[in-house]
Amino acid sequence: MHKTLAFTAALLASTIAARAETVINVAHVLGDTSSYQVTAERLAELVAERSNGEMKIEIFGSSALGGELRLAQGLRSGTVDIAFVSTASLEGIIPETKIFALPYLFDSKQSTYDILASDLGTELLATFANYDIIGLGWGAIYERSMPSMRPVETLADLDGMKIRTIQSTGYVAAYEALGMQPTPLAYGELFLALEAGIVDAAELAPDQTVGDGFAQAIGHYALTRVHMLPAPLLGAPALMNRLTDAETEILMGAIPEALQAGIDAHNAATDAALETMRANGIVVTEPDLAPFREAARTAWPVIVAELPGGEETLAKWQAAIAE
């Protein structure tokens, strides 16, 4: 009898302990080598270590919990705890993020990192709370260039080409201004679309092109650098409400280090991906971007018209970039 009671007590204690464990899900749409995955894995390590195993992060990559639009809605409803969602996918929810849809707004990836690390970047992240999403930090910036089935060396080479774009009105307007035929498709449909000739090109960062297998379907990669696409790490208000103060401190304290790990991995993967493409016979070109910038910027009025604050907001960002 005593053994039975002891066993029952031990079982109850283990059940209570299991229930006491705080489990947080982190979701994203990219593959196992992406900056998203690296960040999530490092965050899981740090949180487990600093909570003595009382907090656990479960990672759902490769769109396991849905595409970016579904993840954004999941954050708002509380079914997703933490997620990476690119600013392009947030435009319909957080219109302030349309600033990043302006083609050639930034001079370089590094200048984009500098702006996001400034007060302007912090202010923008804080506005996310107005839309029931918590901005936890800025992750890697994906410099969007052009994997394609045929060479792109001049602006004229783009004429009439069909390109898969992110489902963003700003991106569509930008590529129309470049003379292309934008075709918004879900990320998961892109590989087959390239193979089947449904599209001639895409707009992806080098590490995405290689890491997610698209290099197997293309022959060319042009460093057009049309958009700098930030990847903010986002949280659900419901998650923040259920965490204790101590748990919140552990999570928020671990995020900057985890994000930096992802950024470092992304930068290394970008260089490696270009080397891999060249080694595999993909022709990598670096066009003169002056004509591209001039053509693409004709799309700015359309995008600015949908940006909260319009020209005033644009002027604020341009002044910060010029500093």
UniProtKB/TrEMBL annotation:
Could you name the domain of life of the organism this protein comes from? Bacteria
Q: Which UniProt keywords apply?
A: Periplasm, Signal, Transport
Subcellular location(s): the record lists: Periplasm
Tell me the first and last residues of the signal peptide.
1-20
Among InterPro entries, the record links this protein to: DctP_fam (IPR018389), TRAP_DctP_sf (IPR038404)
Please state the protein's primary subcellular location: periplasm
> Could you name the Gene Ontology cellular component terms for this entry?
periplasmic space
The record ties this protein, via CDD domains, to: PBP2_TRAP_Siap_TeaA_like (cd13603)
Q: Name one GO biological process term.
A: transmembrane transport
Which Pfam families does the UniProt record give? DctP
Acyltransferase among keywords: no
- Tagged with keyword Disulfide bond: no
What family, per the record? Answer: Belongs to the bacterial solute-binding protein 7 family.
Descriptive protein name: Putative exported protein
Which organism is this protein's natural source? Ketogulonicigenium vulgare (strain WSH-001)
High-level lineage: Bacteria, Pseudomonadati, Pseudomonadota, Alphaproteobacteria, Rhodobacterales
